[in-house]
Amino acid sequence: MTDWARKIAEGDVRALARAATGIENRDPLALAVLRELAPRAGHAVVVGITGPPGAGKSTLVDAMARELRRQGRTAGIIAVDPTSRRTGGAILGDRIRMLAHHADPGIFIRSMATRGSAGGLAQATADLALLLDAAGRDFVIIETVGVGQDEVEIAGVAQVTVVVLVPGMGDDVQAIKAGIMEIADVFVINKSDQPGAGRMEQEIQGMLGLVAGGPQPPIIRTIATDGTGVRQLLEAVQQMRRRGDAETRRKDPHPDALELAAVIASPARPLAPSPAHIQGGHNLKVEIGIIGGSGLYSMPGFEAQEEVVQETPFGSPSDNYVVGKLAGHQVAFLARHGRGHRLSPSELNYRANIYGMKSLGVERIISLSAVGSLKEEHRPLDFVIPDQFVDRTRGRISTFFGEGLVAHIGFSDPICPQLAEVVSQACTAAGVNVHKGGAYLCMEGPAFSTKAESNLYRSWGMDVIGMTNLQEAKLAREAEICYVTVAMVTDYDCWHADHAAVTVTDIIANLVKNAENACKVVAAAVERMPDERSCKCGAALSHAILTDRKLVPEATLRKLDLIVGKYFV
Ligand SMILES: [Zn+2]
């Protein structure tokens, strides 16, 4: 036996952690260690925990781990979230949960969020479960987010699948197809002290009655926050494991499972369907979002693949997202004002536009915006990459937070420095005269400024004036998306002597030329986009959430799950 494998077999947690990382990254050495250890597996109870977001699965898993430790047994927890990248968030989540268990070596927690290449997430999860089993863990608990096809495949790894529901889902339960009965070995009604627990149980029993034959899964009531019912749940799980039939049933995900996943996902998040469902393929992951005019859709080199209709908890975006390939990257275009320019800057649903990007998986947004120049040196047809904003809008909603969840993001540097560098290099490559840095004054509009206002903004040292980008930048930061503005100078604002002399024909000619250049700049920027983000945008919320986690209303959490979910694991 190699040294590495021997250490794991002897209970060395650091060797185990290193192997877990290696397995997730499909590192051949770690996989060899797994092969070496595999014959030792077979002792653990491998249980999958699934159910809609907001059912309290993480809390329940923690309560199960605590109960197991009380009984002198060990646990390995695999928290699977295919919707988030394995970045600071997942790791931070691990740390918080580790702390909750006082760094007890008897509880090993690992978050998984990479899709991997060979065999994907389900394979990596199966391998990690095998590793933890071989390492001598008594229980291996696989906790999933409750959305999508990965979910069901991962549940297929478990010997016993626990479906966690909460009271108050009411009629939604009726909508759950009989397929759920095939996947669930045990039902849990969590938060069973809430009204509606009895009705929930009746509804589950009612549905179980529709499924012919076989032993019926037990229904356990729990209150994960105080541990009520957790011992009974563990007993039920072990009983199902002993029955053995669970093992044979679990080999392949049930054919109804995919449909089931969609149904499970729907009650809690009716307005935020997972990107996988919308796009019809979970391999399609959009990296870069581009907000601008609809003229960009037809830019050279862009192969449009589909239009994605997004409904968000904040309403509808300006238009459908046009998703496709550009310079080898998956990108999504959004026409800021809608196709046909139907929406004024004051009417835009900025939250929906940014949320829609986030749910496509976008990590970077390049925003194109026509602006007026407030400085002589920013000539028409120049592009400015601002690094500051000043807000002169009124009453626009520019935060996702509120409703019982307070977060204050840092916004001193509103533009992503890495993205600004990429985009300004792209301008140079495209032969566009670019000014890096500057202040973008965001005005309400729709009327342009008076001369007095224009001169006032000049006296403040502002560089360009536009009507839309500030809200986008704030919301993108809250959503931990990198954001950069490409401010395309159309003309001098009204302070300039030339302003009155400029004809409409001139302005249109400039708009057309700017649009042409915008296409070149976007293509060049996407082409040279580094794979990894070197900036801090992806962790903007890590110290921003102030509200006591326990006091955040469930409905708010559900609404913001896509954005803050990783901080509430
Ligand atoms: Zn960034």
- CATH architecture field of the largest domain: 3-Layer(aba) Sandwich
- What portion of residues is helical? 25-40%
Radius of gyration: 27 Å
Annotation field: number of helices: 21
Class based on secondary structure composition and strand pairing: alpha/beta
**Which whole number gives the mean pLDDT?**
83
Number of distinct beta strands? 18
| CATH class descriptor name of the largest domain | Alpha Beta
Fraction in beta strands = 15-25%
Q: How many domain units?
A: 2
Q: Termini, distance in Å?
A: 37 Å
Unreliable stretches, pLDDT < 50, 5 or more residues? 85-92, 245-283
Question: What can you tell me about this protein's structure?
Answer:
- This protein has 569 residues and is an alpha/beta fold.
- The protein has two domains: 3-268, P-loop containing nucleotide triphosphate hydrolases (Rossmann fold, 3-Layer(aba) Sandwich); 275-563, 3-Layer(aba) Sandwich (Rossmann fold), CATH 3.40.50.
- Helices cover 37% and strands 18% of the residues.
- The chain contains 21 helices and 18 strands.
- Strands 8, 9, 10, 11, 12, 13, 14, 15, 16, 17 and 18 form an eleven-stranded mixed beta sheet that branches. A seven-stranded parallel beta sheet has the order 3-2-4-1-5-6-7, with helices on both faces.
- Strand 16, helix 17 (451-459) and strand 17 (464-466) form a beta-alpha-beta unit.
- Helix 2 packs across helix 3 (28-37), helix 15 (350-359) packs across helix 18 (469-478) and helix 16 packs across helix 19.
- Residues 85-92 and 245-283 have low confidence and may be disordered.
- Bound molecules: zinc ion (ZN).
- Residues 416, 418-419, 482, 533, 535, 537 line the site of zinc ion.
